[in-house]
Amino acid sequence: MEIVADLIKVLVPASLVLWAMYLTLSSFLRKEFAQKNLEQRFEAQKTVLPIRLEAYERICLLLERMLPNNLLIRLSNPEFNVVSFQQVLIAEIRAELAHNFSQQLYVSDDAWLSVKNALNETISMINLSAQELDPNAPSIELSKKVIEKVLQNQHFSTESALNFVKDEARKLF
Length: 173
What we know:
Blueprint: H1 2-66, H2 68-75, H3 82-99, H4 109-131, H5 139-152, H6 157-170
C-alpha cells in the first residue's frame, strides 16, 4: 500500500506539471500562430491595397466616361443618324465594361452590381430614346433626347454608382 501511496505522490505532481506545461505550450503556440497570421495579413494588405485602389480608380473612370453627358460629347459625330449613333454608344459602353471586368475581383459584389446596373440603365435609356425618334434623324436628335431623359430623371444610377464606389474606396483608408 505504501508503494501505491508513494506512486500517487509522484504521479499527481508530475501530471500537474505536465498539464501546466501543455497549457502553457498550447497557449504560446496559439499566440505565435495568431501573430504569424496577422503578419501575413499585413503583408498581403500592403500588396493588395494599391491594386484595390487602382481598381476603384478605374471603375470611377469608367463611370465618369459612361455618364450620358460625357459619353454623348465624346462620341458625337454629325455624320451618324440615330440608329448608327445608338449602336456606337451601346458598343462603347459594352466595350468599356468588358475592358474593366477584372476590376470586379477587387471591389465588393454590391459595388460591381451597382456599376453593372448603372451601365445597363444607360443602355436602356439610349434604346428608349432611340425608339422615340425617326431612325434616319441626325444623331444630335438622339443626344437631345437622352439629355432630356437625364434631366427628367433626378436620380441617375451612374452618379449613384459612382458615389457608392467612392464611398467604398474611402473605407479602405
